[in-house]
Amino acid sequence: MPKVSVIVPVFNVEQYLPACLDSILAQSFTDWECILVDDGSNDKSGMICDVYGVKDRRFVVIHKTNEGVAKARITAFEHSQGDLITFVDADDFVEVTYIQSMLNDIEKYHVDMAICQYYTFFQNDNCRSNRRSVQGYYERKSIDKMLQSQFLYDYETRCAGVPITLWAKLVKREYVLNALKVGEGLKWSEDQIGLFYMLNRIKSLYVSDKILYYYVMHEGQTTKSYSVDFWFHQFEAYRRYKELDTNHFLDKQLHIRWWLFVVKACIMKLMPQTIRSYSAFHDELKKIDTHLSWRDIFSKTTTYLGSKNDVMFWLLKFRFYYVFFIIFYRRALRRNG
After folding, report:
1. pLDDT of residue 122
2. What distance separates the 2 farthest-apart alpha carbons in the chain?
3. Distance (Å, rounded) from C-alpha 54 to C-alpha 68?
4. pLDDT band for position 224 (cuts 50, 70, 90)
5. Structural contact between residues 187 and 68, judged by C-beta atoms closer than 8 angstroms
6. Pairing between strand 127-130 and 113-121?
7. pLDDT per residue over 36-88, tens digit each?
8. pLDDT digits (tens, 9 = 90+) for 1-26
C-alpha cells in the first residue's frame, strides 16, 4: 500500500489540470497514490484524468455524476489506501517537495498533521506569498489556544492564522473521513469546516514556514462569482461552525470572519458583477436579511475593525439599504466598471 494518498476532486478544469497532475507526478517522494475523482465534468477534464491514469498507475481515476466537491473528496477517500492523506485542488499545483517536506515534519516532530504555507498565483504569472502567523510545533493545549485566538481571524495580521483549507496539509488517515462529512452538501467553506473539525481532534501539529503550494486565481472559480446561493451555503456553513464549536473557541472570531470575508466581500466585490441597480440590490438583500445566520452575525454591536467597517455594518444591521447603496455600493459599481 502507498504511504500517502493525494486526493484531487476534478470538475471542469481542463485548462489547469495538466499542470496540477504534472506537479504531483514530479514529487521527490515517490510512494504515493493520487485519487482523481472526475465529478461529472463536461469538458475534457475526465479524459485528461484517464490519460494520466494510463501514464502512471499511481493515478487512480474515478468517474461519477456531479454531487459537489465535498462528496467527490469522500468518494476519493473511500478508494484511498494511504496512512497519510493530502489534498490538492485540480486547478492548483505544488512544489516538487510538497509531500516529502510535510512527511519529514510529521516524522521528525511525531505529529498528527503537518501544514505548509502557500502562494497565490495569478494569471499574469505573478505570485503573492501567504505565510500565516501560526508556525512551529503545537500540542493539544496550544492547538486549543490557537483555535481560540487565531484560527479564523488573527487581530494582529487581519487574516486567518493558518491556511483554512484542506490543501497544504498532510494528516493521518483516521482524522479525515468525518471531517469531510461535516462539510458535505456545502458549495463554499466546506474545507474550512473540515479543517476545524480535524484541528479539534488531533493531538499534535507542526506548521512549517515553507511555501509549497500554489493556489491559482482565475476567472470562473466558484468562490469568485456571485449567485444568491452563495449566501445560503455560507449561512449553512456559519450554522455548522456554531454547532461544531462546542468549546466556544470561535466566539470572538466567527462573526468578524463572516463580516469581512463573506458579507462585506460578497456585497462589495461579487454582487456588483450582476446587481447594478438599487432596486435589484434591495431585493437581493431582502432575500437574505431574515435568515437566522444573517441575524446572528448582525446581533453584534461592532465589528472591532474601525469606524468605516462599523458604519457599513450598522447600515446593514438597521436595514438602511439605500444609504449603504449611495455611500458604499456605488463606489463598488464604479470599480467594477
Report:
1. 84
2. 62
3. 26
4. low
5. yes
6. antiparallel
7. 999 999 999 999 999 999 999 999 999 999 999 999 999 999 999 999 999 99
8. 999 999 999 999 999 999 999 999 99
Q: How far is CA 71 from CA 38, 77, 237, 331, in A?
A: 11, 10, 16, 39
SS3 assignment for the chain: CCCEEEEEEECCCCCCHHHHHHHHHCCCCCCEEEEEEEECCCCCHHHHHHHHHHHCCCEEEEEECCCCHHHHHHHHHHCCCCCEEEECCCCCEECCCHHHHHHHHHHHHCCCEEEEEEEEECCCCCEEEECCCCCEEEEHHHHHHHHHHCCCCECCCCECCCCCCCCCEEEEHHHCHHHHHCCCCCCCCHHHHHHHHHHCCCCEEEEEEEEEEEEECCCCCHHHCCCCHHHHHHHHHHHHHHHHCCCCCCCCCHHHHHHHHHHHHHHHHHHHHCCCCHHHHHHHHHCCCCCHHHHHHCCCCCCCCCHHHHHHHHHHHCCCHHHHHHHHHHHHHHHCC
Residue 195 corresponds to which amino acid? L
For the record, the C-alpha cell of 176 comes out as 479525515
Cell digits of residue 102: 510535510
What is the pLDDT, as a whole number, of residue 133? 86
Can you tell me the mean pLDDT for 136-150?
97
Are 210 and 101 in contact by the 8 Å Cβ rule? The answer is yes
